[in-house]
Amino acid sequence: MGVRKIDLTLCTGCGICIDECPMDVFRMDDEKNKAFIKYLRDCQSCFICERECPEDAIYCLPTFERRIPDPW
Amino acid sequence: MAEEVIRGIDVLVIGGGLAGTLAAIKAREAGARQVVQVDKAYAGRSGCSACAAGVISSFLPEEDDREQMFTDMVVRAHHLCDQERLQDHFDDFPARLKEMEDFGVGFERLPDGKLQRHPGRGTGKFVMFHGGLQMMGAMRKAALGAGVKIVDKTMVTGLLTRDGAVSGAVGFHIPSGEFRVFGAKAVVVAAGRCWNKGRNPGNRSATGDGLALAYQVGAVLEGLDQARWNNMAARYDIGPGMNMYVGSGGFFVNSKGERFMERYHPELKDRAPLNILTPSFAMEARRGNAPIFLDLTHLEPETVLRFKRVIPMPMMMFERVGVVAGDRFTRKVEWEPAAIQCDGGLKVNRRYESTVPGLFACGDAIPPGSGEGQRALPGAMTSGGRAGRFAAEYVRECGEPELEREQIQVLREETFAPLNRNDGIEPDQVLLSLQEAISPYDVLILRREERMERALRTVEEIWRDQAPLLCAYDPHYLRMAHEARYMTLVGMLQLRSALFRKESRENLREDYPLIDNESWLKWVTVRREGDGVKVGAEMLPVERYPVKPKPDKTLHPLWQRVEGMGIVKIEQGEVRWA
To answer: Does the beta-carbon distance from A23 to B41 stay under 8 Å?
Structure first.
């Protein structure tokens, strides 16, 4: 599943995950001032968001978001 | 869409990995006033560097025999290697390593203060750092400290030229969809690796952008026939670390539980270099012995705890799925080639300047031709440093480039075209078609003309029929659409180049099993000619090189090995499977 969830009770809307995500997965809900997952399918399970979140609000699992053909 | 024009740039660096960051820093140090580093995501986080495992193949002059290491690298590359650039690499490596530590990159040191060495794949010796994230965080800070202007979230979609020389680039800002024009005296391409979004977190943003951009403006690309596959966990989305695993006693077993690498490379076994390891996997698959597993369950707790320091990200991921519990690996992990990756790049001279004046390249955007020492992180360090410095020297003689409105307008239309196709093809569809065509192990790992021809026809169809119909719902999908286009183009050029080389060398051909030093001490080159592709070959200047190949033809050592194992026979100059 890659990035599974953002705990909205912990998210402070700092925007670090949005800035640093290499795959452009997150966007900001300006009204609520919380980040949300917008493009889950492009998540590459790099865990950068989870590592960089200062509030420990993000949880990831290293499973594939899209089918990648096997070489054999 | 709005438009922002940034003029007055001396050196524009495309790419936010280690090579690009060092190029930007070194360009500033060499006197370039305005240095802009542009990245489609976030410099210091996108590309391969931030997800790198914590090892760098290293040369430490006080500990290592330079001449021996140099020769090993050339021989391991089967002489397909620019030995002059490799000498420069050895000259520069120790200084770059020291600078990185000064910038705040954390390295593992022993109590006596020496850098801790670690074996990895091949005969190289590694130094260990605290993961790509820590490294690139420090490097981004260093770039900002050096006065580099970083432009994030901006995807470059075209290079500008004026009178045959590069004059800047255009692209779009992903959050806003705004069109951006960069007027620059020199451009450094540091976004070259193409991993085709395979198994390898951190590399799914490496989509061959720099190669495609350079090709479009007529730059000669070189070595696209060369491919070296990393291997990754097959069923978990977990990134690099194999050097640490096999260097610490990890080993591979096939579906029968056999430690097969002992037979394919009796000396190094599971630590065999990638150009032996991955074809050995493929041969096991060919024999019906897939899947392959990596076994780390026997490792001692202190080894596992060291992994947690040096490759923290993959270890955290393994813990999340229960493969690691505390200080132990709990089970074997299925392992596969990561994806089809392309090792070629822009043909550059010793100053890292391409065949297009003002266009420089470094890191994985140059060919593998500088030997193993110049691939990946070590290569990024030394080639990045030099490319930045030489680009800064180049711009001293340049006036402010004029920008041609008409050229910009054409590129602008091409950039946004997918946004206007509501009924077009999704980028994912193109990606999957491409992966299905080139991923099977018997296309580019174990090569034969008919199979590569078939794959090429499919990729050409994707390029002709699907790529022009790519659609994007918003600027995020616009990035994905351009990435799909770049990967398709690079895949096509890769197959054309691979078909051209009629021998085995870095890669194995069943129909040409010999390493042919009489005819093929050559680079395969590819460039755009009108709307067509021009493939050719250029001799390596081996007469100038210190390590000379024997001018003979010999059966590739891996074919020789597996012939001895009875897996294949060589009949009428071709490999037949037993």
So the answer is: yes
Residues of A in contact with B205 (CB under 8 A): 22-23, 44
Give the residue from B233, B415, B1 showing the smallest Cα distance to A70. B233
Same domain membership, residue B455 and residue B559:
yes
How close does chain B come to A22, measured CA to CA in Å? 5
C-alpha dihedral (B17, B320, A37, B43), degrees to nearest 10: -10
Q: Looking at this predicted complex, what is its ipTM?
A: 0.97
Nearest by CB to residue A21, choosing from B41, B133, B480, is B41
User: CB–CB of B273/B76 below 8 Å?
Assistant: yes
Domain count, chain A: 1
Report the run of H or E that residue B158 belongs to, with start and end. Answer: strand B154-162
Residues of B in contact with A64 (CB under 8 A): 237
Q: Which residues in chain B touch residue A38, judged by CB atoms under 8 angstroms apart?
A: 476
- Structural domain for B420, as ranges: 415-577
Residue A8 lies in a domain: yes
Judge: B201–A45 Cβ closer than 8 Å, yes or no: yes
Residue of A nearest to B312 (CA): A51
Residue of B nearest to A52 (CA): B133
Q: Tens digit of pLDDT per residue, chain B (578 long)?
A: 689 999 999 999 999 999 999 999 999 999 999 999 999 999 999 989 998 888 888 999 999 999 999 998 898 888 998 999 999 999 999 999 999 999 999 999 999 999 999 877 766 788 989 889 999 999 999 999 999 999 999 999 999 999 999 999 999 999 999 999 999 999 999 998 899 998 877 789 999 999 999 999 999 999 999 887 888 999 999 988 888 899 999 999 999 999 999 999 999 999 998 889 999 999 999 999 999 999 999 999 999 999 998 888 889 999 999 999 999 999 999 999 887 778 899 999 999 999 999 999 999 999 876 555 567 899 999 999 999 999 999 999 899 999 999 999 999 999 999 999 988 999 999 999 999 999 999 999 999 999 999 999 999 999 999 999 999 999 999 999 999 999 999 999 999 999 999 999 989 999 999 999 999 999 999 999 998 999 999 999 999 999 999 999 999 999 999 999 999 999 999 999 98
Q: How many domains does chain B have?
A: 3
- Burial of residue B230, with CB atoms counted within 10 A of its CB: 0-12 exposed, 13-18 middle, 19 or more buried: buried
